[in-house]
Design goal:
- This protein is α/β, with parallel strands linked by helices.
- Helix content is 35%, strand content 16%.
- It contains nine helices and 14 strands.
- The strands form four sheets. It has a seven-stranded mixed sheet with strand order 2-10-9-8-5-3-4.
- The protein is globular.
- It starts with a strand and ends with a helix.
- The protein binds pyridoxal-5'-phosphate.
Length: 358
Amino acid sequence: MNRVYNFAAGPSMLPEEALERAASEMLSYKGTGMSVMEMSHRSKGYIEIFDHTVSLLRELMGISDDYEVLLLQGGATGQFAAVPMNLLKTSADYVDSGNFAHGALVEAKKYGNINVVASSRDDNYTYIPEIDPDKLNKNADYFYITTNNTIFGTRYTSIPDTGDVPLVADMSSNILSEPMDVNKFGVIFAGAQKNIGPAGVTVVIVRKDLLGRANPNTPKVFDWTKMAENGSMLNTPTTYSIYMAGLCLEWLKKEGGVRVIHMRNQIKAKLLYDYLDESKLFKGTAHRDHRSIMNVTFRTDDPDTDAAFVKLATENGILNIKGHRLVGGMRASIYNAMSVEGVQKLISVMKQFEQERV
Ligand SMILES: *Cc1c(COP(=O)(O)O)cnc(C)c1O
């Protein structure tokens, strides 16, 4: 079977091993005579699958018992609203580092007083804005960042110290890509479809002392406290996505876990950025100091040349390399499941294209 190199930003490629395992268990999961899709979410068999996914996530990320791990719905976008609904009493500080960060703060403004303490919006989010400690509100209910900016290809290289103010992070596009000290965060959330598994499930990791603060108008499916009390099952969870996420996490564990995958991710990113830095045709669009190792954004000086490259790449089995419309050019999303060979293949096609053009 011909598998392509899929550089999509999300939903994105999944480990082949996980897909094969799912295929082999499709019609009858462990001799039950039914697919996981057909199992009751209250059944013993399914609860085991659910608990297994959560415990793998805890193990791989080093999440302590001080935190609840919730598997919810509504995507990261749902959490843009859930965060203020669960935490906002008076005001919160936000860093505007990309389109998703901006979307989150626009959503949060519906619920209260939001201060934008730093922004790179005027430069089309090509860098992570500096945070001036004097601007921080020591009484803020929380401080909000987006650790990796999927569209623009930037990331935080160090996590800001917010003191006693709980740090809330949208980690949708770099969760599990590098070791992160969960203890630095009050809340971490992520849509699954970039680096966890298929779309559908949303991971929310919340420090237990932050529970019990939700606005009474919060819909119960978005109320972290109520969901924590009910094992994320106040309603039917995304049963199959959670099962698939478990298979992907098993793969990650077998590969050696986050530390090992991080080394591989650094190798992949370095190969690509080194080539971009020496290329006379292609150039990276993100500020060097803040380059993402998950989403590599680049372009030529000419949109028609970009389009011609995308076409050549597609002919060579390299798919979904076209950049987001807000940036143009190209974007190679090289999440955990992308192999080093996939990146090498991309670079060889870029070199071929460059030789023909320059
Ligand atoms: C993809 C993405 C989102 C949106 O996720 P949905 O699950 O589609 O709501 C939000 N934030 C970041 C950083 C993303 O990469």
